[in-house]
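Let us work through a complete example step by step.
Step 1: write down the sequence.
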Amino acid sequence: MFPVAVIEDAAAAEVSLDPVRARLLAELAQPASATMLAARVDLPRQKVNYHLRALEKHGLVELVEERRKGNVTERMMRATASSYVISPTALAAVQPDPAQSPDRLSARWLLAVAGRLVRDVGILITGAAKAKKRVATFALDGEVRFASAADRAAFAEELATAVTTLVGKYHDEKAENGRAHRVVLAVHPSVPMGEENEHG
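Step 2: predict the structure and record it as tokens.
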């Protein structure tokens, strides 16, 4: 089971967004059968089986074991990941394009950049899994508390200057065997845990 998986297919995204199926995915962090799940989610076993087949068809759950109980074979299923992210490729016709209106002070542009990040990393993960390789990535995640809006603006300016200098130092347009890497930096107000829905 992966800690996180990216859903790139529109049909798989639709399946995952169904409230009952989303609940089943959460329950399947640990292997369980349709009978076990039916008791947990208060649904008939046949209905749970129907939903499990849909999830399995789209690679969101997988068979981990078959147990024989009398004349019945019990299928133990597990989610393929602990959590899922839906890639903008699932909405290919309307996926965000950061090139349309680049504005480093726009929250909506930041969202478009983040969407592209999810799309690109999802594609890289899928390709790396098929090739049985790892993706070379690096990320930083932290928090800074600014005393004022002026401090925040000064920080953003210094950060931009530092990164521009660093990129200029290491970027080699003529490197024959080089590979381009995208650098994404973002600064936005933190959302306290438990308050996500209040800011929706």
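Step 3: interpret the result. The chain has a mean pLDDT of 91.
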